[in-house]
Amino acid sequence: VSVNLVEGSEESEAPARLPTPEAMLRVYATMITTRLANDRTTSEVAAGRLQATFYPVSGLEAVCGAMGECLEPTDYVVSTYRNLGDVLAKGVPLQSVIAELYGKAEGTSKGKGGPMHLQDGSVGLMATTGIVGSGLPIAVGLALAAQLEGKARITVATFGDGATSIGAYHEALNLASLWRLPLVFICQNNQWAEHTPLAGYAPSTDLASRASSYAIRSRAVDGFDAVAAWQAISEAVDWARDGRGPSFLECQTYRLTGHTSVTDSSYVPEDELQAAWNRDPVPGFREWLLTSEVADEAALAAIDERANASVTEAFERAEACPPPPLSERTSDVFADEERKS
Ligand SMILES: Cc1ncc(C[n+]2csc(CCOP(=O)(O)OP(=O)(O)O)c2C)c(N)n1
Ligand SMILES: [Mg+2]
């Protein structure tokens, strides 16, 4: 799907670019690290060793990995509670992400934010939020600041399909389009909002068309296909970097688990879920890299091994890390006067 309502937004019909082999392997490394960290978090919660509400990201790995590859460290991302793939892709150290899930002092928010409030300004991960749709206006503000300051910085907002029926989403798209902000809206359409399928809460399920009513450059892409996702995101990022304004990308995926790591998904049609698992983007991309001869088995196995080791180490270290000291419980709540000026 490609919808153009924006004057002058027609793009040349040049063949889509491919990521370099090195870029593809970096995307794969992010994807496998995310999957392994996702599965380990799920099992630690199930075992009662990690007391946190965890929103699995399985099914989103290709979109997240591709996004990370398209952005500079100085670019910004605002994400949601379903954020593990986004934050790792943006370069937040795995160790500090896992420590934050455990509420430990080495976490991104010194253990005081928890899984829904990861942030690391040093790599441009500006906020993750638990309120559906609330990250979009924050992203608009960040993008407006970059525009006013004349910075070449892109802001990305990631959010679910459900967020597209929230008021803040519509305000954000409207203003971003009006002001031609350097912003990329990445909708991670996993077809579900908690227990409700997309068609159960939106009369129009074509999210790219719906978004285009704001005269915004709008595309739909197979979010299980890492190369297609990279192409769509890199084009949107180039578009914004050229000062041509925001894009909306509907990345079509499927939620491969329940809403949280411990909630059931018996209401999800079995055939749909099975079909989605059959297209699992992580082994799918691995297979594609092999058959396309981008990498051989030994190279991919080495990436898998490194990912596995880093996940094991991050969990061991997070478990052993102390919680933040009581004396720090009210620090980092307000900006201090010195930093404000
Ligand atoms: C404003 C608001 N309404 C309701 C909720 C409860 N809630 C949490 S997640 C969620 C589903 C949102 O679905 P979607 O945007 O598709 O994201 P997904 O969880 O599928 O990634 C809801 C309704 C909330 N957190 N915030
Ligand atoms: Mg959803």
Question: Would you write up a description of this structure?
Answer:
- With 341 residues, the protein is of the alpha/beta class.
- The chain has helices at 21-46, 61-70, 84-89, 94-101, 135-149, 167-178, 198-201, 207-212, 226-241, 270-278, 281-291, 297-320, 337-340; strands at residues 2-3, 76-80, 125-129, 155-160, 183-189, 192-193, 196-197, 217-222, 247-252.
- The strands form two sheets. Strands 1-8-9-5-4-2-3 form a seven-stranded mixed beta sheet, sandwiched between helices.
- Helix 6 links the parallel strand 4 and strand 5.
- Helix 2 (61-70) packs parallel to helix 9 and helix 5 packs parallel to helix 6.
- 48% of the residues are buried.
- Mean pLDDT is 95; it is low at 1-5.
- The protein binds thiamine diphosphate (TPP) and magnesium ion.
- Thiamine diphosphate is lined by residues 82, 130-132, 160-163, 190, 192-194, 255.
- Magnesium ion binds next to strand 6.
